[in-house]
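Fold these two proteins, one after the other.
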Amino acid sequence: MTATTPPALEGITVLELGQAYMGPYAALLLQRLGATVIKVEAPTGETYRRPTARKATEAMQFSMLNAGKRSLSIDLKTDEGKRVFHDLACQADVVIQNFAPGAFERLVDVDELMRANPRLIVASGSGYGSTGPYSGIRAMDLTIQAIAGVMSTTGFEDTAPVRTGPAVVDFLGGSHLSAAIMAALIQRGRTGRGQKVEVALYDAVLPSLASNIGGWMDSDGTIPERTGNRHGGLSVAPYNAFPTADGWVAVLCLHDRHWGILCDIIGRPELAVDPALSTNAARAADIDLTDGVVEAWTRQHPTAEIVAALNDAAIPCAPVLSLQEVIDSPQTRERGMLVQHSDAERDWWVLGSPLRLTDTPAPEAPRPARLGQHSREIVGEMLGLDEDALDALVDDGVIFDETTARPPQPVRLG
């Protein structure tokens, strides 16, 4: 890596009209690859600018997903606001939006936008896509988890369906959307033409159910949909989280040789050749027996001791950590995936980039922009307007700077 190597997407300008997670995360990945991302917000700001109930300050998620982006506050419900956005899009490379079905199209004539800028890539994230019987339905991470089988496969067999702890649907959707945008940028480099790209949350999450769907089909629907911490298709054993003397540990034996080594470690070498347990097929056929053997050993030892022994033996395992332990983890710190900053006003956290390129380091991610912080700069730079013209746009309520934007005000409880 040389000091003069530019970021991978340097020179690419993105207008992001995202809300919550899907669109903002797709844009964040592009920003971490060097694109200039302009977050286009209404006068009251994006969803996560709303103050939290507990601290009455901007939600911490906002800084995580938006640090490094510039902020343009504009009223797209006005004719002049639509015109300004149209002119900005004519200078941009990518527009990202994940509004409710039909909302973006009511604000912006996408076809006209692409006629005016044939190189433009318009990327849309939605719950179900533009086709299919669900296409007009509003969607959120929770509702996609419900309708796409995620909730029915999460939890234990004898409990109610459960949503996953993390918002896996939104972030899978955002990752897929950024990949589609980068593919469109590559193709534009060959053809000179932009295009529309689309990612549906429903489509993005279905592949993650491969083990569950495969196991269901292979068993002709006889296995339970919810398998707790066991393998989704109940076809690998051991594969579970086991109690230890002081916590929990996740252990799996993907190959029979792993099982043989584990049997030596737990002092039961005879089980490696026992026909009831010697093969994965046998162990998966009686998972309760298999898990009972492992649990009888894990309960007797501290988590750290188990993890050290199994890691030394190259058996996949990990401690089950709390959120605070993950935040404080040396792995999290070393990789720069969650970094705390502070100033006189507040503290905030910034997400690092999971995309690592040896020759193109990710740009620094500074403090998240205040609502409308860059409105005048962006419109002036991209459209070549002087201060008088910018003053008129602010006075007419078309664009909003830091003095005129109106984010929701904190309301303290109690």
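Now the second one:
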Amino acid sequence: MPEQNPILIHGSGSTARVTALALAAALGHTDVPLHSVTASANANDKSNNKTGDKPGDNDWGSVLALSPAAKTMLDILGVWPRLDLPSAAVCDMAVYGNAAAMAHNIGLDFNPPENLPPTQAENPDAVTVLAHIVSRSALDRAIHAAFNATFDTLTAKLHRHDAALTGFDKSTGAARFSDGTDLTAALLVDCARAATDPRAAPLWRTKSAAQYLTHDYQAAALVCVLACDRPHGGQAVQIFLPDGPLALLPLPDPHQRALIWSLPHSRARALAEIEDGVFMHELARATQGHAGTLAPDGPRGLQKLVLALAENYVDERLCLLGDAAHIIHPLAGQGFNLALRDAAQLADTLFDAQALGLAFDGPHVLADYQALRRADGGAMAATTHILAEIFSGPQSRFTAPLARLGLALTGRMARANQGLAARFRAQANGGTAALPRLMRGHRF
């Protein structure tokens, strides 16, 4: 067995920490040290959410929709049991081409049938809960707590660097930190958020082959908690509107929903600042009242919408993961799920390499990670981008009517063919490839 140099995990937020947890699960039985770089010299890295160590008044102001496979992975890594706020199960999801289609229930419905066909009922991978809605702040706290607990257990193998990473040579693995220390790494797993402006990217990325395809949607997602006059019943709703998609996600309180409304910058800023009564009027006009009476229940926030997709995820000893590899439109709620699939696949790849006695920085060791994750991330980025553009982009006055028709026809076919509906649910759960070990509930 070759002596392995340490693995550096770079990033100050939850993606980097959960990646450290996944690699610790895969390699904790070996002598391979893991170094987690928790400080960042990259001003563009917004992944370190400044959340407190206890639940706050606006913890539901930003939420994530986690797939069942993602929940399974977080369970195994000890994150899910540490959530200090409840999650909400999405048992039904309906997607509509406009508010009128919602009124007539003409759209794509992901609702699992009450009576599955025998072949599906016998399938342990059949998805009956479509997603779990969690508070982003609560999840950050749970990941941080699980990371600290793992660090306390594996202090000889899991190390924290409080100094920022200032340089990395992808050819030799030489890394330098802001405190002047040096380290030779087998891999740098870079999880820090991608810079949409290449001039703001870390130097080791600009010198690599990992150039980015970028797009600025000139839009922002307006997010807040809504009080509703009718129970949501565990249903998530998405409506494609001319200005951008509007999503209503169920929260643990049956009379509360999370709003994620994509809008052009100027309109998003205006709706974030206007008084509650006018906001309620605009929301009712957008939904045409078909979602009931909706009122803001807390502050409103904005999240800039951009697309960034790395051309390559692997370049010699540099491995991109999570926001470093892909930032996608939030309309499918798949951003953090993609990051978790990246981490789980990398854990599989390195575990298998170690079992075969291969050096982590050897040729083609990360070929499967590159191929599988690039395909999944690229497919999801393309799907969300195309949907956003054909329903709400500059040419939407021509493309949206055809897209609404296609959505309605797809919904009708899915209702008639439960096998097709099951494939849609499986795609949302696991992406384009077979699920890695952690997402199947398997330990290393």
